[in-house]
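FAQ: What does a ligand-bound record look like?

Like this one, built around inosinic acid:
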Amino acid sequence: MAKSEMSQDILRVLLTEEQIHERVNVLGDELFERFHGKNPLFVGVLNGCFVFMSDLVRAAQIKSELEFIGVSSYKNATKSSGVVQITRDLQRDITNRDIIIVEDILDSGNTLYFLKNYLMTKGAASTTVVTLLDKPSRREKAIKADLFGFEVPDEFVVGYGLDYCQQYRNMPYIGVLKPEVYSK
Ligand code: IMP
Ligand code: MG
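The answer part, i.e. the structure of the complex:
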């Protein structure tokens, strides 16, 4: 079968598999430098983190543990409301743990602003935010990633975990969606 079923909806490729792979390895090295010997707890933000996290933890090669948290932020058509709700909570005690939060993209900042505070109230010793993509032009909350893969322009991107209406997460690269896909 032709593998164009998803790529035909892509306007242009923003980041190739190779570019992502190379950058994730650099982020992994950086995490190793910062966290080896500290047994950190990676906390992935579902669902978007799943591809990035899988590559990142293997690139970092740190003795560590993995955990996931599910959140949803209520949005109207154009704007994040800023209200974030936990849809799947942590399954273990994080008291005194060094937490590495793994996100697909930092956009308005509402999700990570909420999560950082939430994890600190649960007793985390520290939180470090690692996001693959950063869209600083859309920030509403005063939050910065400690590590990010790529800064991206204000365009809606999909692939490598990122979705539009839950689709395209399984594309191996990151691309900009064709505008007509939104108006279907
Ligand atoms: P924030 O709370 O506005 O920072 O939103 C972060 C979440 O919005 C991410 O975890 C994504 O799920 C979603 N998001 C923001 N921008 C994009 C995009 O360009 N493509 C896909 N999802 C996005
Ligand atoms: Mg997400």
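Follow-up question: can I read anything off the structure? Yes, for example: Residues 48, 73, 80, 103-111, 156-158, 162-163 surround inosinic acid (ligand 1) (CB under 6 Å).
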